[in-house]
Amino acid sequence: PCAFAALVALSFSGAIGLTFLMLGCALEYYGVYWPLFVLIFYFICPIPHFIAKRVSDDSDAASSACRELAYFFTTGIVVSAFGFPIILARVEAIKWGACGLVLAGNAVIFLTILGFFLVFGRGDDFSWEQW
Fold it and tell me: Any coiled-coil ranges, and where (predicted)?
């Protein structure tokens, strides 16, 4: 029951984040769909974590080089996702209002991804691997 409520909350927050992203693109005042390229960052964000989890051994070490490298790449992907709409707004490819909506959507989506790994990535009897 608790995992089901967490899954519903995470899906709701993901829908809110994608709504912000779509509003930044589809409102008639903005009308440019360049910010949709941040979807690529959403999809590649968890990949370093998956690779590090698969490659590194499951020892109880405080940290491993592989895990730290995955954190580094994930941080670079997240920073790039926030920087991309700012650069688009600076070169006037999109308006600043659209940039703000995309940044709000980025914050919500990345917090949703983080929440997913915090809730379902503990490695206990109920984990994300079942999904």
Answer: none
